Amino acid sequence: MGCGLSKAHSNPEVLVSHGSARLTVHGRRLIVQRHQAGWPQAHIAAAMGVSRKCVKTWIDRYAAEGEAGLVTRSSRPHSIPTGSSEQVEQKVLAVRAAHRDGPDVLGPKVGCRPGRCHGSCAATVCPTCATATRHR
Q1: What is the pLDDT of residues 108-131, one digit of tens each?
Q2: Could you list the residue ranges that cross the membrane (predicted)?
Q3: CA distance 27 to 120
Q4: With a cut of 50, which residues of the chain have pLDDT below it?
Q5: Domain extents for the chain?
Q6: How far apart are CA 16 and CA 119, in angstroms?
């Protein structure tokens, strides 16, 4: 639950903790302070309502990066190696503009999965794509 190690993105984003987030920066700092005071990790986890793995993650990040390791990070991937090529995306957009079909019809026409067609159209904001998804 948000405790996996990930690299910070080079693009700065505005990150806001969601309402059900168990730990904020303040809570992560409290984990580190309790660890420095000699608390066992299992006791810190029980007091904070998180797993021991999560406690260890924040302690390790703090040891490696200092205060910067406690900052909220984006979980968005750095890259999508299996993403559609520019050529496929252009083909999907051209067919969608011409026929105004949804992903289920576009997929077989273009030769890719419907989800891939939807992703290509959703990534490109164009009036044709937006109106084609509405009920007629």
Answers
A1: 777 777 777 766 666 665 555 555
A2: none
A3: 39
A4: 1, 4-13, 132, 135-136
A5: 1-79, 86-132
A6: 25
